[in-house]
Structure formats: C-alpha cells, structure tokens
Amino acid sequence: GQLSFVNGGALSQTVSVPVTRDDIDENDEGFVVDLGNAVNASLADAQGAGQILDDDAAPTPTVDSISVLEGNAGPVSAVFTVSLSNPSAFALDFLAYTADGTAVAPADYTAIDQGAPVSVSFAPLATSATVTVPVNGDLTVEADETFTLNLIANNNRGQPMIIASGTGTITNDDSATLTLTGGAIAEGNSGTSLLTFTATLSNPVQDPVSVDYASADGTATLADNDYQQASGTLNFASLVTSQQLAVAVVGDVEVEPDQSFAVNLSNLSGPAGVSIGTGSAQGTILNDDATSFSIANASITEGTGSNSTLSFTVTLSAPAKDPVSVQFATADGSATAPADYVAANGTLTFSGGQTSQTVAVTVIGDNLVEPSENLQVVLSNPVGGSIATGTATGTILNDDSASLTIDDVAQYEGLTSRGAGALTPFMFTISSSNPSTSAISVNFQTADGTATAPTDYVAGSGTVTIPAGATSATVLISVIPDTMVEPDETFSVNLSAAVGASIADAQGIGTILGDDQPNPVPVNDPRALLLLIALMLSLAGLSLARRR
Fold it and tell me: In angstroms, what CA-CA distances link 336 with 236, 298, 364?
C-alpha cells in the first residue's frame, strides 16, 4: 500500500495488517512490514516487525463412549474414538489401556493391559484417532456389560494420571427359551415310582432364573389315585441350563390303558431375553398289568327234533378298567357247517370289571347215527389284552342209535308155477331204525323149524351189510318146492353180532305155504277111505307136535 504525509499534517500514520484467527495450539508467530520508495524523505528504519501471540490452549483429549452387539461367536470390534478439543500444530501422543467394569477380561473382551498400553497418536492438526478393543461373542443371556478405555499422557513421569476415559457397552443380543419335557414310567404294582420331568434353557443365562410348576390331571387323575399332586419352583443358578422335577406315580394291579397327566410352567422370573417356549409336558404312566383271553371247550348232545345251543365260555384272567374286546369265529372240524352247525363270528366286548362272556353256536339236530363230531371256535385280534388260550373244541355228542329188525316172510313153495327143479326165493328184509354215517353189518344164520334143510330149503349163513345212509338190506333164502301134500312149514333166519347197531328183532320166520293138492279118488274106491284115515292121522300128529 502507500502512505502519504502532507505538509503541516500528521507526522505518523498506521498500517493495519489483518490476522486470521484459529484455535490451533501453536507457537507465537511473526511477520514484517517493509517500507520503500520514499518520496521527498529518506528511510531511517525501513522495516517493522509484527508478532502474533498464540492465545489457544493446548488441546484436551476426550474418549467417546460406545456400544457394540457382542454376537454369538468370535471377536467383534469395539472402536473407541479419541477426539481433541482443538487442533495442535504439534504431533501429540497419548497412551490408552482398558479397565474392567461389569464386563471382565478375558471372558468378555480382550484387555489392553495398563502395563503395556497402546499409543494413540495425532499428526499435526489431526483431531481424532481410534482405539479398537476385541469383544468376545457368546450365547449367554446376560445384562449389558461395560468396560472402560482410559487415556493417559505419554510422559513416563511417575504414576500416570487418567486424562480421559470412555465407556464401552457390550450389548447382549442373546435369548433363551425354557422347554419342559416329560417322560414315561411303568407304574408298578404297589408303592410309588418317580416320573422325572426336565426343564431346559436353550442358552446359559448369567443371572438367576426361576419358574413355578404344577401338575394337572389328564387321563390319569388324582381322584383315581393314579399319581400324587406336585408343585413348586425350579431355580436356575447362574449359567445352569437344566433342572429336574419328579412326580410320584402310584402303582396298582388294575388292567387299564396307559394314562397321562401334565406338568405346567408359569411365573417365569429372570432377565430380559428369557421366555417360556414349551411350558407344558406330558408324563405317561405305562400300564404294566395284563389281562388275557381264554376260551374253554364245550360239548352238547345234538338232539333229533330241534336245534340246540353249544355255549363256549370266554374269560378274562383279570378285570379291566376300560372295555376290552376280542374277535371270534367258528371253524369246521369233523362237524361241518351248515350241515351240523350254523357258522358264527363276531366280537366280544367286555365292559369295565366284566370277566366272562359266552359264544353261542347253534347245533342242528338229526337222527343220523354217527360218531360224535367237533368244531372249533378261534379267538383273534385282541384289544386291551392278549390271548392265552385262543382255540376251543366244541363236541357234538351223538345221541342217535340204530336198531335192527328182520321181517317174517310167508309165501308158497311154488312148484306149480316155477316148474320142476326151480328154487323159490324167500327175501328177508333187515331194517335199521335210523340211517348211519357208517355201514352197519350183522351176521345171519338159518335154523330149522318144521321145515328142514336141505329137504325144504337151502340153509344159509353170512354177513349182511347196510351201506352208510341206507336203512335196509335183504337176505335171500332158497326154498325147495315139492309136490307133497303137507301142512305149512317154517324155518327161521337168526341175526347176531351186529356192528354199528343193536338188534331189536333177531329172528325172522319163513313160512312155506303148502300149495299142493291130493289126486282125486273115487268115492266108491276103498283107497279113498284109507287115504282119508291117513290124512287125519297125519294132521293129528302135526297138531300134537306143535303142542309139545
């Protein structure tokens, strides 16, 4: 610039130099103002010095407080920012170390030891720097935890003094659910057995956790004395993840289905992040008592005129509390359906406490002589029990019999009609009172009466068989015709040794009727008188013989 002094005017003037303000901590600074090119004057002192006096304080460091989610595994970086209150023209250096709070090294984070602090350096005019502290992730449910980053001067002068500090908060991001699981136990026959339930936290919890529990009826009930009431509180100490409770189950000898009851959780107490997941579990009382089905053999007389009922008894070895059932079906043996009985099948259901039922099979009566016959009833598909004796035999007792009779036969000897030398057959019928499923046999033997063999008939003997299902057979006896005038003559056929029947009439009489006539004699012939006398004597002798 240019300064002008006028004649008679002021002898001094001021040169103003603007100075730029800043907040930089720095040394005092100087500059000069030079004069030159004087007109009508000489320069005695051509340079003036200006000095800028620094009025900024040394910068003050601060450490920001931060928070970081811990994560579930591995290290997570917690980055602290160290800031200066104002810049400095000088390079600055501090030292930093960590100190435990509720977070504890090395479990929760990796410490920077006070004996080996890290350097926090600022280049000239820089106002921020960072310090990184590794935080350890985990699954533990816990409160947020803290530690401190302390800043000290780097001057090695006695006990360091903390000039700034910041808090690092490790924010918990874990949760835990409480799950109750039940189990099963055989009830036993007496006393009590303990059925154990387990309550499990999905993750460890730093702070204590508690929860109430209580049993509740299901198909097993307190009223039926199936189990004993249980209630109380489960307490989880720090980091404990499992607790158990027990319910007393009462033994008995009653046959019953498996039964169950419940245990329910309520009133959870613990830090945030802990909740009830599965709060109810079932305990199963396994029935260890058994019942079994048995069927007994049966028999009945079949009868002849009407049907009858063959009754089979099915029993349970022990009464059951609830209904149990078993299926049944008939099966042919030597008796067959529908000829001998009516086939049957179905289901027997035993109500609670019932121990006996009957299977009824209709037997068809007949008059057929036969061996006793049998059929079976078979049990299957038991529900609520097992089968001990699953097959029974039903016997149909035959009450029919056969008795044999032989007819009498009377006929003419037959010479006139048959011719000389021909024999006359006498057919004796042997009859059975009832048919038989087996052949019936009987022996026969002729015996003389007034007719004698071999003069009047041909003697015979042998065995006659009545086939199965038939009711008669015949015996042929040959009679020898003659021309003799004689009274009727008789012989017999006798039965014996019957097989498959009894003998009611063991003798059949064969009567040979005389069919011969004397030659005519003249009345005046003396021989007629003699013939009449002989005939009368013969008849008198026959009558006397019959009386004897």
Answer: 74, 16, 11
* 96 contacts 117 by C-beta, under 8 angstroms: yes
Per the CB < 8 A criterion, the answer to whether 230 and 217 are in contact is: no
Cα–Cα distances in angstroms (integers) from residue 115 to residues 96, 156, 160, 202, 298, in the given order: 10, 12, 11, 40, 102
Q: In what order do the strands lie in the sheet with 280-286?
A: 183-186, 280-286, 259-269, 209-216, 231-236
Instruction: Determine contact, residues 426/410, Cβ cutoff 8 Å.
Output: no
Q: What is the pLDDT of residue 529?
A: 54
Q: Identify how many contiguous H helices and E strands the chain contains and give both numbers.
A: 2, 37
Model pLDDT for residues 57-101, shown as the tens digit of each residue: 789 999 999 999 988 887 999 999 999 999 998 999 999 999 999
* pLDDT at site 404: 96
CA dihedral 374→380→385→389, nearest 10 degrees, is 30
Q: Which amino acid is at 45?
A: D
| Mean pLDDT, residues 8-23 taken together | 77
Determine if the pTM surpasses 0.70: no
Structural contact between residues 379 and 390, judged by C-beta atoms closer than 8 angstroms: yes
- pLDDT in the model for residue 542: 39
Q: How many C-beta neighbours within 10 Å does residue 73 have?
A: 10
Q: What's the one-letter identity of residue 488?
A: D
In whole angstroms, what is the distance from residue 412 CA to residue 543 CA? 21
Instruction: Report which residue type is found at 164.
Output: A
DSSP line for 332-376: ESSS-TTTTB---EEEEEEPTT--EEEEEEEEPP---B---EEEE
Query: Which run of H or E residues covers position 538?
Result: helix 526-547
> 541 pLDDT band (50/70/90 cuts)?
very low
Residue 520 C-alpha from the chain's centroid: 111
Give the whole-angstrom CA distance, residue 320 versus residue 213: 33
Q: In this structure, what are the phi and psi dihedrals at residue 510, rounded to the nearest 5 degrees?
A: -100, 120
Query: Average per-residue pLDDT in the chain?
Result: 89
